[in-house]
Automatic annotation (TrEMBL):
A matching Pfam family: tRNA-synt_2
Molecular function in Gene Ontology: asparagine-tRNA ligase activity; ATP binding
Domain Aminoacyl-transfer RNA synthetases class-II family profile, residue spans: 52-318
UniProt entry keywords in alphabetical sequence: Aminoacyl-tRNA synthetase, ATP-binding, Ligase, Nucleotide-binding, Protein biosynthesis
Native source species: Infirmifilum lucidum
Name of the protein described by the UniProt record: Asparagine synthetase
GO biological process: asparaginyl-tRNA aminoacylation
Length: 319
């Protein structure tokens, strides 16, 4: 199997040798230009670019999430305090919009210690980067249009700047048609069964949105209808590249959901305190998985091919 062979290659290859290859250089140049295009698109739309934190007393619990397979949530003790390594900047984004920042984005490394068997998916890395953004007062459709435009602009930029690299890789960047189709998770479950996340992208020819996915407390849930106002973006063949939502901001509801999910009320006390004082505000946003986006753009088969220092689950390299 191709992906299995790739994982074996990662284990066998010297880091230096891998970095020195022509294909890796081409991919990393496309990566760099993708970052240029993405950040320019957001900056041109009035977003403020902020840097991430790597340690914090609270981070995304990544729970409950039917798609998650986290085997460890690393903690450090610093200055006599326990801190976690960032799993996503979601809660910091909510704090920022609450404090009055209208549109923000953060290029943020996420540490997610996935189970070893995820090495074979070709799509999981235990360190990866999100372009994580949030818009105060935005609705789902605003985010759909924003992301569609940003992706089209990125492909257009790559078509101009990276001809040589794409020809070295033997592929062409594909400009998707907008607007992308929207499916509910239930529709896909009916059509494909429980494995819809794997099967639907294999049949798709264009990127598509999926809405109403039960997961973490901070995504808005209409408790009466039993519907979540959240969304994922799926790429043909490659699968999920973005997840996001309209957010919860009301204290009672957040507290109810945190308790329901078995998440620690004590750990999130400061965040809950903000909600109790009525300081959290409605917003919507998402995080774009940058490595997965480049994986699709360059049509590689394993995420290790787009990372200079691959962080494949279960494989700790010398660098
Ligand atoms: N970045 C995502 C969001 O904005 C959260 C995540 O990655 N778990 O919803």
């Amino acid at each position: 199997m191709k992906v299995q062979a790739l994982v074996e290659n990662i284990l066998a290859l010297d880091v230096y040798e891998s970095l020195a290859g022509v294909q890796k250089k081409a991919v990393l140049h496309v990566f760099s230009e993708t970052l240029r295009a993405l950040t320019t698109s957001f900056l041109d739309r009035g977003f403020t670019w902020l840097l991430p934190v790597i340690t914090s007393k609270i981070t995304d619990p990544l729970w409950p999430d039917p798609g998650a397979s986290i085997e460890l949530r690393p903690e450090l003790e610093i200055y006599g305090e326990h801190v976690r390594l960032t799993q996503s900047m979601i809660l910091h984004k909510q704090l920022l919009v609450a404090a009055g920042y209208e549109k923000i984005f953060i290029l943020s490394p996420n540490i997610r210690i996935e189970r070893r068997e995820r090495a074979k998916t070709g799509r999981h890395a235990y360190e990866f980067t999100q372009l994580d953004f949030e818009v105060r007062g935005a609705k789902r459709e605003d985010i759909f249009r924003l992301v569609e435009d940003v992706i089209v602009e990125t492909v257009e930029h790559l078509e101009d700047c990276c001809r040589k690299e794409f020809s070295q890789l033997g592929v062409e960047p594909e400009k998707p048609r907008t607007p992308f189709k929207v499916y509910t998770r239930r529709e896909l479950e009916e059509k494909y069964g429980k494995r819809w996340e794997t099967l639907a992208p294999l049949e798709a020819e264009e990127p598509f949105w999926v809405t109403d996915i039960p997961r973490e407390f901070y995504d808005y849930e209409d408790l009466e209808k039993g519907e979540w106002r959240n969304y994922d973006l799926y790429l043909p063949t490659y699968g999920e590249v973005l997840s996001g939502a309209e957010r919860e901001w009301q204290y009672d509801k957040i507290l109810y959901k945190i308790k329901r999910d078995g998440v620690s009320v004590d750990a999130y006390a400061y965040y809950l305190g903000l909600a109790r004082r009525g300081l959290l505000v409605p917003s919507a946003g998402a995080g774009i998985g940058v490595e997965r986006l480049v994986l699709w753009l360059t049509k590689r088969s394993h995420i290790a091919e787009v990372q200079p220092f691959p962080r494949v689950p279960g494989i700790v390299l010398p660098f």
